[in-house]
Amino acid sequence: xxxxxxxxxxxxxxxxxxxxxxxxxxxxxxxxxxxxxxxxxxxxxxxxxxxxxxxxxxxxxxxxxxxxxxxxxxxxxxxxxxxxxxxxxxxxxxxxxxxxxxxxxxxxxxxxxxxxxxxxxxxxxxxxxx
Length: 130
Prior knowledge:
Blueprint: H1 3-34, H2 42-70, H3 78-103, H4 105-119, H5 123-129
Helix pairs in contact: 1-2, 2-3, 2-4
């Protein structure tokens, strides 16, 4: 087997792993949003909005990472590359959540307000529930 076909198999497996991780993360976000209803509390809406916003920021950061990696010319050891990618994905998820916690209130608040209107949840209903 020559190097080019080995690299293609490695690239395919890397992409397959990335797609699986992305699908799992997407599924988590979707399940958080699908559990919302007109009986959801404002806190549940805020948590769902934060989860979505963190996922959105994560995707932006991953695209930036791909752009940077596209500029590299040297190839790394495949195993080292996979470990680095796994670590970077975890770091990106953590950074995304921190960005949302620290700076994301306007977007989260807008999403919560929109979801409250969509589900017919009013501030007075929320106050009574507490």
